[in-house]
Structures are given as structure tokens and as C-alpha cells.
Amino acid sequence: MKVSGAVAVVTGAGGGIGAALGRRLVENGARVVVADLHADKVESTAHELCDLVPGSAVGLAVDVSETDGIRALVDLAERRFGPVDVYAANAGIGGGIGLETDDDSWQRIIDVNVLAHVRAARLLVPTWLERGRGQFVTTASAAGLLTQIGSPSYSVTKHAAVAFAEWLAITYGDQGILVSCLCPMGVNTDMLTGGADLDDPVARRAVQAVTDAGGVLEPLEVADAVMAAIESETFLVLPHPEVLTFWRRKSADYDRWLSSMRRYQASLS
Asked: By three-state DSSP, how is residue 33 classified?
């Protein structure tokens, strides 16, 4: 898909990957609605984008785990810029550590990391089918292809996000709907350490597992990888190329991979 002239929605754009992706989109000629749960953060992002390219962006504070919030974003995009061409389901939250995570916390992360994608697709896909084009960009994680030491809810929901992206690509890929699925490892954002209790040894090991597995990238580096995938119509976006090597080892011998993961977990301080 050509980005120049496209209308995009980017969720979770109050900072990190979402804000960086918004920047790259407007720099390449797109007009963007940026969304976040926090009004001050998303307004700051929108102002920064408009400073780069006047009139290129508008921000809205909504909860994108709810259908009404997603509908408000789509309606705003249509009023200000036109029909949505690209929807980047980037909003995500971390999960609790271990089996102690309660049901309410499980439900919240499922709503944000998985069902927000489903609800967005329900709203957008029928219109995209009529128009014959549209692109859905899923921010998952390397945890969706491998796993996340420490957090079962993060691992499960990121696996589900990858699976839903695969399903969209299979079901609608021959009808003009493109899907890209982003699966990075460590990225220098608040999510990496901001929500972790580093005095908790389990939480500390979970963060260490990410930072030790590969280089920690800057959000703009990740956004560049996403932009390349949008332009080339590539499904799997791997800013950390070593993830593909890890995934191949996993799929080649599952039991050996599980054993190696247990040894790796035991080695973490």
C-alpha cells in the first residue's frame, strides 16, 4: 500500500511505538488520527505531528478496548480526512506475573491486546471489502511467536493477536485487505520497565529475559520496519531478525526448545 495520501488510525500513540509510527506516517504523506487512553499524551503527540506537517494529525483520548471508542476514532478520521485506509492496532498493556494474576486482570489484557483488534476489524473490514482495499497493522510481540518468561497473560494474548492477524490475512487477503503483524523483542518504551516491580525477582527476571535476548531498539527503528512492511505488503514484521531464528528452532524441535527455555529461565538473576 502507498502511504502517501492515505488516512491512518494509530492506537496507543501517546508515546513509544505508536507515536513513532504516527511520525513516520505523516512524514510520508499520510494523515493520521492518533489515539490513547491518556488525553494529555495523545494531544502532545498530535501537536508534535502537526508541527512536522501542519494539519496532518488529530488526537483523541478513547478506550480502544471498547467498540464505541474505536467507532469514535473511525468517525473522526472520516470527518477530518476521509475513509480509513490503514488501522494500526498498537495499543497494548502488560500482564501480571505468574498464576496469581486475577480474573479481572486477565479480562482487561484480553480486551486490550486481543478483542480491541477484533472489534476494530468488525467495524473496518466491511467497508474495506466494499472499497477493495485496506490495511490492518497488528502490534503483537516476539512473545506471540515465542513466549514471555514470567507473564502468562501477556504470552497468551500476544499469541492470540498473532493468530487473529493470521486469520484476517487468510480470510480476506484475496479481497484487497492487507495485514501486517509486528513482533519485536525489546523496545525502549515505558512498557519495558515502567510497569514492572523490579524489586520482585520474578518481575525482574521477566524484564531481563527481554533485554538480554537481543538489542533494545528505539521506537523509530521499529516504526521504520513497520513502514517498510506496509509499503512491501509484508505480513510478518521482525525488527529483531533473530526472532525468526528463535522461532525456527522452536518449530523444528518443540521439546528441545522448551527445555532450553527452562534452562534460560533458571539462568536469569
From this structure: strand
Q: What does the radius of gyration of the chain's CA atoms come to, in whole angstroms? A: 18
Active site residues: 154
- Alpha-carbon distance 229 to 167, whole Å? 18
Rounded to whole angstroms, the Cα distance separating 35 from 119 reads: 15
Tens of pLDDT along 51-66? 999 999 999 999 999 9
List, in sequence order, every beta strand (DSSP E) within 125-268: 134-139, 177-182, 236-237
Strands 134-139 and 86-89: parallel
Phi-psi region of 71 (alpha: psi -120 to 50; beta: other; left: phi over 0): alpha
Q: What is the DSSP letter of 143?
A: G
pTM (two decimals): 0.93
CA distance 64 to 79: 19
Number of Cβ within 10 Å of residue 205's Cβ equals 18
Lowest mean pLDDT among 1-5, 177-181, 221-225: 1-5
Q: Which of 87-91, 148-152, 245-249 has the lowest mean pLDDT?
A: 148-152
CA distance 210 to 195: 14
Q: For domain 7-242, is the CATH number 3.40.50.150?
A: no
Helix (H) or strand (E) holding 190: helix 190-193
Section 71-89 average pLDDT: 98
pLDDT at 213: 64
User: Over 80: is that where the pLDDT of 203 sits?
Assistant: no
Q: Order of strands, edge to edge, in the sheet holding 86-89?
A: 57-61, 31-36, 7-10, 86-89, 134-139, 177-182, 236-237
